[in-house]
Amino acid sequence: MTQRKIFEIGGYVAAAVLVAFGIAAIVMGVNGRNEVRSDIKREFIVGSPDMNKTAILAEAKQAKLPAAVIADLPTCNVADKAIVTGAQAKCFASYMRIHSFEATGGKTYAQMGRFLTKDGKDTNDSKLAAIDPKTKQPVENGARNLWVTETALTNALNTSFFAEQVAMFGIVVGIALVLSGFGFGILAFTAFRWLPAQEKKKALKTAAKPIVA
């Protein structure tokens, strides 16, 4: 077997491997995307009527949320819509965060105290906290616990968005690999078959021409 033949076969093998990996990446990406959407759909999440930029702005102003929060309000729209995609899940999560701000008065988890005083203010000092008559323990800050729940849910929703994006990236990479494989195969055929054949034909035509004295 000549060296040229080895390179030609190697080119075809490389092309086949690229196409195979590309198809596998596309299949895995499609399956991943479908699984993410299936998992989201079975939760039966529906956006509340205020999950659009106009309604949430009015609510934020009414709740007197800080200017920094109002400036970063979501602008997507999932009001009264079933949440079935990663992008919709991410949008829903962004509105959940605003709802949590409304419940906490614009404070994040780290800005709130662990307990509540007798007059309803938050504090980290258990000595200043109101005492629950049943448990005889300091009264926990319910808004802070709400934020923990919100964070867990929004992280799950944002993770589904990330997973869907990864799946889409896998599909794009798979398509690129398939195209690269076909291109590699065409290049190998052109370099080791078509061009040598054309050069051979040209040489035969030149040799066949009569020599004029």
Observed structural traits:
213 residues, mainly alpha, two-stranded antiparallel ribbon, 5 helices, 2 strands, 65% helix
- How much of the sequence lies in strands comes to under 5%
- Uncertain parts: none
Radius of gyration: 32 Å
Distance between the termini: 43 Å
Coarse shape: rod-shaped
The overall strand count is 2
Count of individual helical segments: 5
Indicate the percent of residues in helices.
55-70%
Structural class, from secondary structure content? Answer: mainly alpha
List the secondary-structure elements in sequence, H or E: HHHHEEH
Strand order of the largest sheet: 1-2
Largest sheet: 2 strands, antiparallel
> How confident is the prediction overall: mean pLDDT?
92
SSE topology sketch:
Elements (H helix, E strand, L loop, with lengths): L2 H39 L11 H10 L4 H4 L15 H19 L10 E2 L5 E2 L18 H67 L5
Helix pairs in contact: 1-5, 4-5
Structural overview:
Helix content is 65%, strand content 2%. The model has no long low-confidence stretch (mean pLDDT 92). It is rod-shaped. The longest helix has 67 residues, at 142-208. A two-stranded antiparallel sheet has the order 1-2. It has helices at residues 3-41, 53-62, 67-70, 86-104, 142-208, and strands at 115-116, 122-123. It contains 5 helices and 2 strands; from the N terminus they run ααααββα. The chain is mostly helical and 213 residues long.
Give a quick precis of the structure:
This protein is an all-alpha fold and about 210 residues long. The protein is about 65% helix and about 0% strand.
